[in-house]
Amino acid sequence: VGIPADKANDFFKRSMEASDMIIKSGKFALFNQDPDPAANYQQLFLDKTMNSEAIFVKAFASPDKAHNFDYAMAAPSFKIDWGTNTSPTLELVESYEYIDGTPGTLKTTDASGNLIYYENAEDIFKDKDPRFFASILYPGSPWQNGELEVRRGIIKNDGSKEAA
């Protein structure tokens, strides 16, 4: 899968030339509609006004051209039957660095190797890159006038466990 190594330089050259043509065309520009980086990144994909950054777009409008993506991807806590055909992998979640530039590995133990007990399930994601919050539905994230609940279980401060 991918480009044969002996053709990589030519591919990159052509890619750079095509990108340069797009930039110089003046038809496209970076989307910058919200001062909040997470909200701006999220709106880049949700804005329906054919924003200036959109190059390859396929618009859907019911009833002529529709899909069931939203229904199929809805979190179980927002559906009455099955849900979440896909979920982000731990590798994807941890690929988002922290805003201080440190690797995105989730902090589960302290410097002494002791488990970290978070006050809220979403606290483990504190200080992640803003693109994380725009791309990943995490425990406590706002969703359809509610708050998303995603967990397998919780270990309480007294050591007892609460199953999901």
From TrEMBL:
Keywords, alphabetical:
Cell outer membrane, Membrane, Signal
Keyword Signal carried by entry: yes
Per UniProt, subcellular location reads as: Cell outer membrane
Please report the organism this UniProt entry assigns to the protein.
Answer: gut metagenome
Give the matching InterPro entries: SusD_RagB_dom, TPR-like_helical_dom_sf
Residue ranges annotated for the RagB/SusD domain, each copy included: 53-147
Broad class of the protein's primary localization: membrane
Q: Name one Pfam family in it.
A: SusD_RagB
**Which protein is depicted?**
Protein containing RagB/SusD domain protein
Cellular component GO terms, alphabetical: cell outer membrane
